[in-house]
Write a structure and sequence with these properties.
The complex is a heterotrimer of chains A (388), B (528) and C (318).
Chain A lengths: L1 E6 L5 H25 L4 H13 L2 H26 L7 H36 L3 H38 L3 H21 L32 H19 L1 H11 L1 H6 L4 H28 L10 H11 L4 H25 L5 H21 E6 L14
Antiparallel strand pairs in A: 1-2
Chain B lengths: L13 E12 L2 E12 L3 E6 L5 H8 L7 E6 L2 E3 L4 H6 L2 E4 L11 H6 L11 H14 L15 H14 L4 E5 L7 H16 L3 E6 L2 H7 L2 E6 L2 E6 L6 H9 L17 E11 L5 E11 L3 E5 L6 H8 L7 E6 L2 E2 L5 H6 L2 E4 L3 H5 L6 H9 L6 E2 L2 E2 L1 H14 L16 H20 L7 E5 L7 H16 L3 E5 L3 H7 L2 E6 L2 E7 L5 H7 L13
Chain C lengths: L2 H30 L7 H19 L2 H25 L4 H20 L20 E2 L10 H5 E2 L1 H19 L1 H11 L1 H6 L4 H27 L11 H11 L4 H23 L6 H25 L20
Antiparallel strand pairs in C: 1-2
Chain lengths: 388, 528, 318
């Protein structure tokens, strides 16, 4: 008796739903075994993680805080993956988005504010107090959002151009650029951009309050969440309702057919990576302008890598990215919680993520293939085998 | 080399006996209780259409597939092949239609691939010497140190045959062995095969060409739809009878073709040079013209520059020099999109690899060229409903049989795949040229390869209809009969050059064969 | 620069490049059989941690090496199972492996130290430099080449052996055939799956060996992110090497030299900020990759095994 796999003519729908659920359950069991091995009580640990991530209004708001950069980077890498462009550089693009955001807010914004003063004065004079308050905020917010997008986009553009024109392996280039971006940002906040009044703390001075992303009352959840939801909607429209989205799908499924049909590969790689890098850059923007209000150590904590898992678990679907990002953010927050309360390494969250992805990847075979058990077809044959 | 236990030990003259072989693939019953017997020293033809189950049956005999039911007896002994290793040990060697050779390795490395000896260190000098001597003995001279990609197709086939003999095969399976050969090379192959049979080897060759059965086979078994229709020998039957067995109905071998009504010159190719993917010259000063309402056939053995010619015309490959013109417009090295806009469409050689996106629906595939314009799109937006409507219309017009426009293309049969492509390409050509007095150009590469007789007929008919409607067609095919039946003129390509262009009506097959490269059709780039 | 300095740089270049040589040759073997393993950064982290932990507790550096290699092979086995048996996407599986193994290394590194505490900062056994008599006394090249640790000497043996194995043995021929044309290999009775499993795991073991050199000789001990992207650089080096072990050595030495120059400049008290010096290897990787891609595509040479990254399925239609 032998087991082999056979291709299904139609992908199985039930398997497509069951496998992710099953994967999470099995991952939790495997993770539990690991926890037990290092002497922690798995049930207690999971409970602590669950409560830490979703147990209170505050916990959920903190999970949302971590979910926003995961959503944006997840959306960013998923659009690139759609086209089989392996953008592993979400982390670096996030860092560069944060860099330009801080640069804009620290150095350009004050000049803009000065330049706007006469206009604000005029508005005040005309009794339009509301506009006088809204104008500088709108200008600065538009500025930081644009800066974040551009920072990530330019970092995504380099591997795109190298791939499109020379054919350089984008996996390596995007990865190497992560290391470069992180070193660059560290250089800035340890060096020239360091806050002179910061008592040696590695970070820049705080940015102007007018450039902060507005927060939902009482939480650290901010405008970034809205930006992420809007981005998901726009991405969905692009992918499903536009010619560009159609081209991306054709290139992703069969690049040779795309070329044959006259679809411009170079232009698409460049545009998609501007969008992809830009979205990752926005994640860096929300961290700087929405959370820390300065460029500081701890900007790059691996969102760009977790984004890969988010994108894949979400099957590259923009709406699913939002949901998966929220759940994985819960895992990260839960991991932080057990580090604080139980003294367990937070990296257990990474391990669980890895296991979930393994299981979903491995389980995919069940949607495309059927497991068949072979039996000897004719018992009279079995005696003759030894002769051969 | 051969396992002595596997050599015939019994008196029975049968060397191969397959009984009640059944093999299912998801959605297909490829072999249905097939029986096949072949005597030692016999040349046995396995005749059938594409998709009749011939290759499946032989892959089972070669140990690549395991049958779901049935048994195999070799020299009277029942054997169970669990892998190709078992089949090879039983003295069976198969020459696949797509050669099983590692292109980047040498002949000798290919020959010793998979053997148990030497255990570890390879002494290539000794192995080369041995192969040189042995191959000469078999009358299959090959250079052991040459790399496979440097060899012409006929030589590669000799390597394949030698590979099987080297491990002691006495039953040799040849899958469509003449499909890739020039007529002269085919004759040479028949001689080799007869010599081997005389020396006691058993030969089974797969074919769908009736003529081939007559030129070499002792007996023939006909398969249709996975079942055996009958076994007979050439003297006992006629070609028409065999054709009826193969197809299941009377077959007309001729295609109705109204006389050509040639118009203006549509495509001019002038002294074009191009290189192939390996960086070697693939087109050398190629010049030709096609007129409105004309089919120009390109004959030649695969790898002599035909694919590169199609790609250079359609903008997929750069021309290093020369000039390509559609009417008066210079399209040399224009982007594929610009060429498409000139009304040039393309039925590519690799249907699923280039012509279609297998995982997308029929709708998405039919839209691949028309999506750029209304009604399928408005501005940057795509109208999904219009796409579906458009696909449904084309499916009806070109008789694509599928559950619906949402069906994934990879689930379609070869014939329907080709209809999906033709529907899109013909419509795209008409759309691009409909507004003015110009006509479209269709570049069709191996449009009937792998199709069954019915699908082949309808594709040929479509091509001729298009021509009669004024389109210009460049038809690239390896099937000389098809070229002569469908084309108005035939150009022969060899080693990247046009060897000559003759009217199809009074073409001489032998002469064309000689232009195709005679006894060794060297692929482009190696001969200088 | 005088010859003394060149000699010093060569000595450091060899030490710094050794882990890359092992990892690159490991990945070359894996890719030659047709499997792309992008998980080697994760494998290196986990193997380096395991190697150091085992060496620390057993007080034997060699036991650490063995453990690192076994760990490398086991992690590669996960990748092999997913991509060969379950036909998962090789790129995503490799990335998953990097995330998983990287996380696991960080997690276990917090728990495998003394009394279930962290390993970070512990001092354990290490490979000391040992001079080879006579050879180490050779002028100029003697000290850099022959006053090194045992794993460097192991590398001197491994490189020619691995090249010989690849090009001049039956097993090497089969490996190359499986990576170039698995259908042919299969028809000739070579087990495609078995071959790929074997070389994926063997490659993982070599990557583990490279990692062991990091945590037991070059930068002894365990710190988070000890590898600093060496796994990814090794993958770039495979492309630079055009899948050839000899060229891999050249590439790894080049990177070792970059490291050496970096330290040298720092020691000399350069005004270039440390962060910029730290970027050098990554910038250099990109530059080298661009150059080699440009150069090889201009020559129309495709060095990658033809079937790299493509799952092999025998009985499949459509």
């Amino acid at each position: 008796m032998k087991i082999h796999v056979e291709k299904r003519l139609e992908p199985s729908r039930s398997a497509a739903v069951l496998i992710p659920v099953f994967s999470v359950v099995v991952a939790l069991i495997l993770g539990g075994i690991l926890l037990a091995l290092v002497g922690a009580n798995p049930i207690e640990t999971y409970k602590a993680m669950l409560v830490g991530a979703f147990g209170s209004r505050y916990a959920i708001s903190e999970t949302l805080v971590k979910a926003v950069p995961l959503m944006l980077t997840g959306l960013g890498v998923s659009i690139a993956f759609r086209m089989l462009f392996w953008n592993i550089g979400g982390e670096g693009q996030l860092a560069m988005g944060g860099f330009l955001t801080a640069g804009f807010a620290l150095f350009v914004a004050p000049k803009l504010l000065t330049a706007m003063e006469p206009m604000i004065g005029a508005l005040n004079g005309a009794g339009l107090d509301f506009l006088a308050i809204a104008l500088p905020r709108t200008v600065l917010l538009t500025g930081v959002i644009a800066a974040g997008f551009v920072g990530g986009a330019m970092w995504g553009l380099v591997p795109a151009l190298l791939k499109a024109y020379i054919g350089v392996n984008e996996i390596i280039v995007t990865l190497m650029m992560n290391y470069i971006a992180i070193l660059w940002v560290e250089y800035l906040f340890y060096g020239p951009w360091k806050d002179p009044q910061g008592y040696g703390f590695p970070g820049t001075a705080e940015i102007s309050e007018l450039a902060w992303l507005p927060r939902f009352t009482g939480t650290r959840v901010n405008l970034g969440l809205i930006i992420a939801v809007v981005a998901a909607f726009l991405l969905w429209v692009v992918l499903n309702r536009t010619k560009w989205g159609y081209e991306i799908r054709v290139i992703g499924e069969n690049p040779d057919a795309a070329r044959y049909a006259g679809i411009n590969r170079v232009r698409n790689i460049v545009l998609v990576m501007i969008l992809s890098g830009g979205l990752c850059g926005l994640a860096g923007m929300t961290e700087v302008a929405g959370i820390s209000h300065r460029l500081q150590k701890g900007l790059t904590v691996g969102y760009g890598y977790t984004a890969i898992i988010v994108a894949w678990l979400a099957k590259l679907n923009p709406w699913a990215v939002l949901v998966v990002a929220f759940l994985l953010a819960g895992l990260l927050v839960g991991g932080d919680q057990i580090q604080i309360t139980m003294g367990l390494p937070a990296s257990v969250a990474l391990v669980l993520q890895g296991i979930i992805l393994f299981l979903v990847l491995g389980g995919d075979i069940l949607t495309k293939y059927r497991i068949v058990i072979d039996r000897p077809t004719d018992p009279t044959l079995s005696g003759a085998e030894s002769n051969s | 080399m051969a396992d002595p236990q596997a050599l015939p030990a019994t008196q029975t003259p049968l060397s191969v006996e397959m009984r009640g072989i059944t093999k299912r693939f998801p959605g297909v019953l490829a072999n249905d209780r097939v029986d096949l017997t072949v005597a030692a020293g016999e040349i046995h033809a396995l005749l059938g259409e594409n998709g009749a189950g011939k290759s499946t049956l032989m892959n089972i005999l070669a140990g690549l597939y395991r049958p779901d039911e049935g048994e195999i007896l070799i020299h009277g002994q029942p054997l169970d092949f669990r892998s190709p290793r078992d089949s090879i040990a039983a003295g069976i060697g198969m020459v696949h239609q797509h050669f099983m050779l590692v292109e980047s390795q040498t002949v000798a490395e290919n020959v010793i691939l998979g053997l148990d000896t030497p255990r570890f260190v390879l002494d290539m000098k000794a192995i080369n010497a041995e192969i040189a001597v042995l191959s000469a003995q078999y009358g299959l001279e090959i250079d052991p140190e040459a790399r496979i990609w440097q060899l012409c197709v006929g030589e590669q086939q000799r390597v394949e045959i030698f590979k099987a003999l080297y491990v002691g095969a006495n039953i040799l399976i040849l899958d469509e062995p003449t499909a890739v050969l020039t007529p002269q090379e085919a004759v040479q192959l028949y001689e080799t095969v007869e010599r081997l049979a005389t020396s006691g080897k058993t030969i089974i060759f797969i074919t769908h060409k009736l003529g081939e059965v007559y030129s070499s086979a002792d007996r023939v078994t006909v398969l249709r739809g996975g079942r055996v229709v009958g076994t007979t020998s050439p003297p006992e039957t006629t070609e028409a009878e065999l054709a009826r067995m193969m197809v299941g109905r009377d077959v007309l071998f001729t295609v109705e073709k109204p006389p050509a009504a040639m118009g203006r010159t549509m495509l001019t190719v002038e002294a074009v040079n191009a290189i192939n993917d390996k960086g070697l010259p693939a087109l050398k000063d190629v010049s030709l013209t096609i007129h409105e309402g004309e089919i120009l056939g390109i004959a030649g053995v695969a790898g002599n520059g035909q694919r590169e010619l199609a790609e250079v015309i359609t903008g997929l490959r750069r021309a290093r020099s020369g000039r390509i013109q559609v009417y008066d417009t210079d399209v040399t090295n224009q982007s594929p999109l610009d060429v498409i806009r000139q009304g040039v469409s393309h039925v590519p050689e690799d249907r699923l690899g280039m012509g279609l996106v297998p995982n997308l629906s029929i709708s998405d595939n039919e839209a691949m060229k028309a999506y750029r314009r209304p009604p399928l799109s408005r501005g940057p937006f795509l109208d999904r409903n219009a796409v579906t409507r458009y696909a449904r219309e084309l499916m009806q017009l070109f008789q694509v049989s599928a559950p619906g426009p949402d069906t994934q293309v990879r689930l379609l049969s070869g014939g329907n795949l080709q209809k999906v492509i033709l529907a899109r390409e013909i419509t795209a050509g008409q759309e691009a040229t409909g507004k003015d007095a110009r006509r479209p150009l269709l570049v069709a590469v191996h449009p009937t390869r792998g199709l069954d007789v019915g699908a082949t007929e309808s594709v040929r008919k479509l091509l001729i209809e298009q021509r009669s409607a004024g389109a210009a067609i460049l038809l690239i095919s390896e099937d000389l009969d098809e070229l002569l039946a469908v084309s108005d003129r035939v150009a022969v390509m060899f080693s990247g050059e046009i060897m000559g262009i003759v009217p199809a009506a009074d073409a001489d097959v032998d002469e064309i064969g000689l232009m195709m490269g005679g006894k060794c059709s060297t692929p482009t780039g190696t001969a200088v | 620069m005088d010859s003394m300095m060149l000699v010093a740089i060569l000595a450091v270049a060899i030490r710094a490049g050794t882990s890359l040589v092992f990892a690159t040759i490991g990945e070359i073997y894996t890719e030659r059989s047709g499997i792309l393993n992008l998980g080697i950064e994760g494998i290196m982290l986990m193997s380096a941690m395991t190697g150091f932990a085992v060496a620390y507790h057993s007080n034997s550096a060699w036991a650490g090496v063995a453990a690192a290699m076994v760990m490398g092979a086991l992690l590669a086995l996960i990748h092999a199972f997913l991509t060969i048996t379950l036909r998962a996407d090789q790129v995503v599986s490799g990335l998953a492996l990097t995330i998983f193994a990287g996380g696991l290394a960080s997690f276990m590194g917090q728990r495998l130290g003394p009394n279930g505490g962290p390993l970070v900062g512990m001092v354990g056994p290490r490979f000391e430099k040992l001079a080879i008599p006579f050879l180490a006394d050779l002028p100029l090249v003697g000290r850099p080449l022959f006053q090194q640790d045992a794993l460097v000497y192991l590398m001197y043996i491994l490189v020619p052996v691995s090249a010989f194995y690849l090009y001049h043995t039956r097993q090497g021929l089969h490996m190359r055939a499986v990576g170039e044309n698995p259908h042919t290999a299969d028809a000739k009775g070579i087990s495609v799956g078995g071959t790929r499993y074997f070389y994926t795991m063997a490659g993982g073991a070599l990557v583990g060996l490279g990692a062991a050199h990091l945590s037991l000789a070059y930068t002894p001990g365990w710190t988070e992110n000890l590898t600093g992207g060496r796994g990814w650089i090794a993958i770039a080096l495979v492309i630079f090497a055009m899948w050839d072990p000899w060229r891999a050595v050249l590439g790894a030495l080049l990177f070792g030299a970059i490291n050496a120059i970096q330290f040298r400049l720092q020691a000399m008290g350069t005004t270039i900020p440390a962060a910029f010096l730290g970027m050098l290897p990554y910038i250099f990787t990109i530059v080298v990759l661009v150059a080699i891609t440009w150069f090889e595509s201009a020559r129309k040479r495709v060095g990658a095994p033809a079937a790299l990254g493509i799952p092999y399925v025998r009985e499949e239609r459509h």
